[in-house]
Amino acid sequence: MSAAAEPEELDLSHYLDVLLRRRWIVLSGFTVVFVCALLHAFTFVPIYEANALLVIERERGGAKVLADGTMIQSDDDDYYQTQYKLLKSESLLRQVYEKLDLSKTADFGGPHGLAALQGAVDVTPVLRSRLVYAGVRSHDPVLAASVANALAQTFVDQNLSNQLFISKEVLRALQAGSGDAGARRSYAALPAVVDNKLIQDLKGEYAKLQSRYADMSASLTPKHPDMIALRADIDALQGQIDAETDKIVQSMKTQLSGQLKGNNVRIVDPADVPERPVKPNKRGEALLGLIGGLAVGAGLAFLVEALDQSVRTQEDVESKLGLPFLGEIPFSSAREGKVYDALLAKQFSLTSEAVRNLRTMTDFAGAPNGAKALLVTSTVEAEGKSYIAANLAVAFSQIGEKVLLISGDLRRPSMHRSFTSTAKRGLCDFLAKGQKVDELADLVQKTDVPGVHYLPCGPRSPSPSELLNTPRLAALMTWAKSHYDRVIVDCTPLLPIHDTLLWGRHVHAAVFVVRYGRTRAPLIAKACRRLQDGGVKILGVVVNASRPAGLSYSAYSYYYGGPEAEIPAASTEPRRPS
Questions:
Q1: Is residue 242 part of a domain?
Q2: Phi and psi at residue 470, to the nearest 5°
Q3: Same domain, 229 and 346
Q4: Where does the pLDDT of residue 8 fall: very low under 50, low under 70, confident under 90, or very high at 90 and above?
Q5: Residues 383, 515 contacting (CB under 8 angstroms)
Q6: From CA 106, how far away is CA 111, in angstroms rounded?
């Protein structure tokens, strides 16, 4: 079996880290569900249930005689299912409804009171027994018990009434003597007699003999021997029909006498007034709200994670963008001081180590030819490209390189705030009216960081694209590469303007900055394709303002000896082994 066919191991740490990173979504979902469960449990009007216990014995004999004398056969399952349905039948409930005058109660009043009563009745058979509970639910415990008892008693009375009911005609026929002509006519009209196959055959033969007798009487007198013989046959056949009829009637009498011995339904335990409600179950609903809240919160977290198209981790960079991962810079809440203070500070910090790691990865990505000149750009504004460019410049200077940092954003420059430099003269002056590249030496400013020099933007031009299209830009980059070990250009975002592509004609390597969890991956991919189509090699992607938390943050803290005071730990996904 090939390695490719082996099932992928379940990485539980990944799912745990998703929950930790989306903890506010988990907490929000949990809070909403749990609070709703508590509100329902403590504000819901209590419902009480009273149960009357009945026993339903199997009817004696296998057959049942109906009111018209018809006999039917049924098995146990059919019989008991019928009884359960009768307990909730509309006719039975209507009797209870009218007997207790339930139309005046709050639970069962109104035009749909009978339907409400039917919905409140619950018939629950006891497994493997002949017992059944007739339960009634109501907001009033006394009313619930009263209705349950009335329902049980009415069912018992109705069952007895059904067993004793026989039509007057059948009862008169069964009680009359067999010699009575009226009784004979009643017997003959019974369905059990009419439907008997033997009697039907005998009656058919009797009709044939009667027809033959009528035909012969036209030519013969009643005293003729043939007529006397035929009359004897007719009388004998009538006697046979009467005998068979008497057998059926006797069988019906025996069956009825066995069924009328007593009621097979009785009340075992009448319903008591319930002391505790069946709804709501406060403890159960609180537990259900706890479990359901956690499930909903986790489900929402994974749903948001699945729908999230932003870039946060190394896996996102490699899978969604298909680009190398250079590193991640932790989020910093520091508003005072300079953006590169962490690199100059003596104490150890996550930010300084992350920037130094970015410097190393950038060098590795630019090998073997090296990337002496770098563009630093992003998809849209406010992703931190100027912050990354300034810190990279300081980081390279700390390994002995002479670095020139160029403010290449001619539209909205901001780098001069990081180095507290003047922006009266700068790059725009040279691109607009420079005569010799030596003039650049007067425009480049020294910074408070040894080895870092800064070329400001200068006065902003109304037509930056035209300035970047002049041959002076090529001369500038040639001069910069010859005078400095490293040239870093802070460019404009790629969308929606194209100034970075004009820089890309002369600087063929770039570091792409993505802000943690902000910009959608398809938009980032579109910007990267545009840069690559312009002939610029993207050395890799750096995730800025990363918020490590959970498993990732624990790893950071363990390795670096503790969190950085000015960097509140936030969140990132752990890197899973490939």
A1: yes
A2: -80, 155
A3: no
A4: low
A5: yes
A6: 12
The CA distance from 264 to 160, in Å, is 8
The pTM of this model reads: 0.59
Nearest alpha-carbon partner for 121 in 108, 139, 137, 132: 137
* Residues 6+ positions from 415 with CB-CB distance below 8 Å: 386, 389, 390, 405, 407, 409, 454, 456, 457, 490
Beta-carbon contacts of 59 under 8 Å, excluding residues fewer than 6 positions away, are 79, 259, 264
CA dist., res. 395 & res. 329, Å (int): 13
Residues in the chain: 578
What is d(CA 444, CA 402) in angstroms, rounded to the nearest whole number? 13
Residue 531 lies in domain:
317-560
Domain annotation covers residue 196: yes
* Token pair in block for residue 56: 């339903």
Same domain, 296 and 400: no
The number of angstroms, rounded, from the C-alpha of 191 to the middle of its chain's C-alpha atoms is 61
Assess if residue 118 is contained within a domain.
no
Residue 558 has pLDDT above 50, yes or no: no
What tokens appear for 150 in the block? 């009335």
Nearest Cα residue to 163 out of 81, 94, 250, 261: 261
Q: Residue 123 is which amino acid?
A: V
Do 331 and 254 lie in one domain? The reply is no
CA dihedral (532, 390, 497, 522) in degrees, to 10, reads 50
Assign 249 a pLDDT band (cuts: 50, 70, 90): confident
Burial group, residue 147, by CB count within 10 angstroms (0-12, 13-18, 19+): buried
Cβ contacts of 192-199, under 8 Å, gap ≥ 24: 192/69, 192/70, 192/71, 192/248, 192/252, 193/245, 193/248, 193/249, 196/244, 196/248, 198/244, 199/241, 199/244, 199/245, 199/248
Q: What is the tens place of the pLDDT at every residue in 293-335?
A: 999 999 999 998 888 888 988 989 999 999 999 999 998 776 6
Q: In terms of C-beta density within 10 A (0-12 exposed, 13-18 middle, 19 or more buried), how is residue 351 classed? A: buried
Task: Read off the tokens for 301.
Answer: 């977290």
- Give the pairing type, strands 486-490 and 403-407: parallel
Q: Give the span between the Cα atoms of 503 and 477, in whole angstroms.
A: 10
Site of tokens 């970047």: 468
User: What is the mean predicted confidence (pLDDT) over 399-425?
Assistant: 85
State how many domains the chain has.
Answer: 3
- CA distance linking residue 426 with residue 526, whole number of Å: 32
- Please write the tens of the pLDDT for every residue from 526-536: 999 999 999 99
- State which H helix or E strand residue 528 sits in: helix 521-533
Give the range among 60-64, 103-107, 124-128, 421-425 with minimum mean pLDDT: 60-64
